[in-house]
Write a structure and sequence with these properties.
Elements: E1 9-17, H1 21-31, E2 35-36, E3 47-48, H2 54-69, H3 83-91, H4 93-128, E4 144-151, H5 155-165, E5 171-177, E6 180-188, H6 192-201, E7 205-206, H7 217-268, E8 274-275, E9 279-287, H8 291-297, E10 304-309, H9 344-350, H10 361-376, H11 379-394, H12 400-423, E11 425-426, E12 429-430, E13 434-439, E14 442-448, E15 471-475, E16 478-481, H13 491-520, H14 529-554, H15 563-585, H16 589-608, H17 612-628, H18 631-636, H19 642-676
Antiparallel strand pairs: 1-9, 1-10, 2-9, 3-8, 4-6, 4-7, 5-6, 8-9, 11-12, 13-14, 15-16
Length: 701
């Protein structure tokens, strides 16, 4: 089946006697093929099944293991383990080890909380120690108001204020420690408001004096520091024990979690199935390609099973919220993929396509690395990105997300490497950097001054080419070169190319939308050739007319003949858009007359948005060039300065690469998700989630 469409789905209905329900669930779990539609209780004589009694016990054990998993970092075993061995560990060594781990974790939380409290108490006592007053003397008075804290202003202002506002009757202590001025002020209760006002003017910040302790702050602080030291040692010991636990029992924990989750799913599965006093029936979706396999596997547990291929009603399908969506749609299962599978991460980020619609995954497998490579386009950064992807891939083991993420990094790294070769750039340097002088209208070239000039051997150019190789003029302003010097000679050509990329990419999206409406219709229930033309064809006409008008206006003089035909085609497209809004979207004609021209003009920013393929890349090159300015001075500097220059250069390169990985990804994703997909994409598909399990660490029984 074509890779540009999702799997064909069928509706399975199976029934049998109630005593066979356990056999049914075991068969479905092994098949991992049925997306169960949970029973809603709407049929007379049937009700929801009940989970097995053991599910509560298994659930409690599973909760305990999940708690342990949240505490430690662990990896599963490299090779699958037999289920009997895992059960034996669950009943013995692993159970005891998990209890021990949870106890240590509880104690660690208690120690950390106590340490936090003691650290706060120590900092307070350190401030109070400067006053040389016992702690119990700072609080607890009935007729006096005590103010203890720090000030940012002058203490002399407070002393003068006490003479004026409090008749000099207050007691005032002050000292400085670690740059902070600590004060203690005692006044009669009736003078507290005046004292508070004085302190506020001096930037007073109160200190929470510890309650229930007495004695000299210095002696108390020594005792607190002793407790901190003891608790810090205990914290370190517990942390080491937890790390050792992970190394010893991590693989067993991964196996135990997988087995218990598998058993818990099976034990609670009856709550998704309809049962009566003597029978059951199960309803769900399967991939049509597996229908015979599933029905054959259910023969022993079911008296009846039937798979009905799903047929979408043109104009009435989809997962959206339109009133026209009466048809219940199946979940979406991707085609089996190998190379392009990592791009499913991108598709899932937006949402799976509606049933029957085009799956963009395969297209993004081609265009996403190209867009990313056009922006980052540096051989050194490409090699680093590929290496990072290979490292992530090697550490993935059974983690599918890391597995796909590693491949994804390799793909965009390859795009970066290829375009880096085309651009002749390495770590921000141009591979061909010649001093040239124009003599009698002819350029005289000197030596290649690039620090990476040795890479010029990778280019099949003659000695006299000086970095300029084959050229190809395709017309309409499209010029291709090899190498393509984007930061110099061919900058304007790259800008033009990015606009053409946007023009073609968006038209391609509209063609996909045309196909979807032609066969499956719109959210408003319109389907067929006319609907497809007005919903998407009119936009293609607008883009073509807009291109002709723009090229006739901005292009060479011999292209002016395109000006008037282009304007006429674009205006006719606007008229068609007015009709589209009125007839297919139900918008009043008066509003459509205003809205259609606005939407037509709005297509221009979508195309121009692809200029970011040039702009983002140039910014990255300039950042790398800034760091490369340290390269030449580094070789001329004193010996002790060379490491400093090198670290500075390397830091800028790392920054440029990190920025180059994130920023082009953001912009490549935007061009696909916003500018391209919105031309056609319906992301209302529900993910296909079959009941069952896949063995990662524990062998299937």
């Amino acid at each position: 089946m074509s890779q540009v469409k999702t799997q064909r789905m069928g509706r399975l209905l199976a029934a049998g006697t109630k005593d066979k329900i356990d056999d049914l669930i075991d068969a479905l779990a092994t098949l991992n093929a049925l997306h169960i539609i949970e029973y809603d209780g709407s049929d007379d004589g049937f009700k929801l099944g009940t989970p097995k009694e053991e599910s509560e016990t298994v659930g409690m054990r599973l909760t305990k293991l999940r708690s342990a998993a949240s505490i430690v970092d662990f990896d599963g075993p490299k090779d699958p383990v037999q289920a009997d061995k895992v059960r034996s560990e669950l009943d013995g060594t692993l159970s005891e080890a998990v209890d021990n781990l949870l106890e240590k974790s509880t104690r660690l939380d208690s120690v950390e909380n106590r340490l936090s409290s003691l650290e706060e108490e120590r900092s307070v006592l350190e401030l109070l120690s400067s006053l040389n007053l016992d702690v119990e003397l700072l609080t607890g008075y009935s007729s006096l108001k005590a103010f203890v804290g720090t000030i940012s202003g002058s203490s002399s202002d407070i002393e003068l204020g006490l003479e004026d506002d409090c008749n000099g009757e207050g007691l005032f202590f002050k000292d400085t420690i670690n740059g902070s001025t600590v004060i203690a002020l005692f006044v009669k209760s009736e003078q507290s408001n005046a004292a508070q006002s004085l302190l506020n003017q001096a930037g007073f910040q109160a200190i929470n004096v510890p309650e229930g302790i007495t004695g000299n702050p210095n002696e108390l602080m020594l005792d607190v520091m002793l407790q901190i030291s003891e608790l810090s040692g205990e914290k370190s010991s517990i942390s080491n024990d937890i790390d050792s636990w992970s190394n010893e029992f991590g693989a067993s924990l991964a196996c135990g979690l997988e087995l218990l989750e598998r058993e818990h799913d099976i034990l609670t599965a009856p709550v998704k199935i309809a049962v009566s006093e003597h029978a059951f029936f199960v309803d769900g979706w399967i991939e049509l390609s597996r229908s015979e396999e599933v029905q054959l596997a259910l023969k022993e547990s079911c008296l009846y099973s039937e798979v009905t291929p799903f047929k979408i009603e043109a104009g009435g399908g989809g997962h959206g919220h339109s009133d026209h969506h009466h048809q219940e749609m199946p979940p979406i299962a991707y085609q089996s993929r190998t190379l392009s599978k990592p791009m499913e991460l991108l598709t899932d980020a937006v949402g799976r396509p509606a049933y029957g619609r085009i799956d963009p995954t395969l297209f993004m497998f081609v265009t996403y690395p190209i867009f990313f490579g056009m922006m980052l386009g540096d051989m050194a950064y490409g090699l680093v990105t590929i290496s990072l992807g290979a490292f992530v891939f090697s550490k993935a083991r059974s983690n599918e997300m890391m597995h796909l993420g590693g491949k994804f990094l390799i793909y965009i790294g390859l795009g970066t490497l290829i375009f880096g070769y085309i651009y002749a750039e390495f770590a921000g340097w141009e591979i061909f950097m010649y001093e040239k002088t124009k003599i009698n209208g002819v350029y005289e070239y000197g030596d290649n001054l690039s620090p990476v000039a040795f890479l010029a051997n990778l280019y099949p150019l003659s000695d006299s080419a000086h970095g300029y190789g084959p050229e190809l003029e395709l017309g309409y302003g499209i010029n291709l070169y090899f190498p393509f010097h984007r930061v110099g000679t061919h900058l304007e050509d790259l800008i033009v190319l990015t606009i053409y990329v946007g023009f073609i990419h968006i038209i391609f999206g509209k063609l996909i939308g045309f196909r979807d409406v032609l066969f499956y219709g719109t959210d408003h229930g319109h389907v067929g050739l006319a609907a497809a033309f007005f919903e998407h064809g009119a936009w293609i006409v607008l883009l073509v007319g807009g291109f002709m008008f723009t090229y006739g206006f901005l292009g060479p003089e011999d292209a002016e003949y395109l000006l008037q035909p282009g304007a006429a085609i674009a205006l006719s497209a606007v008229v068609m858009l007015i009709w589209t809004l009125y007839n297919y979207h139900g918008i009043p004609i008066a509003v459509s007359l205003i809205l259609a021209p606005i939407e037509a003009i709005g297509m221009m920013p979508s195309v121009i948005s692809y200029v970011r393929l040039f702009a983002v890349g140039i910014v990255g090159v300039k950042i790398a060039e800034t760091g490369n300015k340290l390269w030449e001075p580094m070789w001329e500097a004193e010996l002790y300065l060379i490491p400093i220059f090198f670290i500075g250069w390397l830091s800028v390169q790392i920054f440029a690469w990190v920025l180059g990985v994130f920023s082009p990804n953001i912009h490549a994703a935007r061009l696909h998700f916003v500018e391209w997909m919105r031309q056609y994409y319906d992301s209302s598909g529900e993910a296909f989630e079959p009941f069952g399990f896949r063995s990662h660490f524990v062998e299937v029984e």
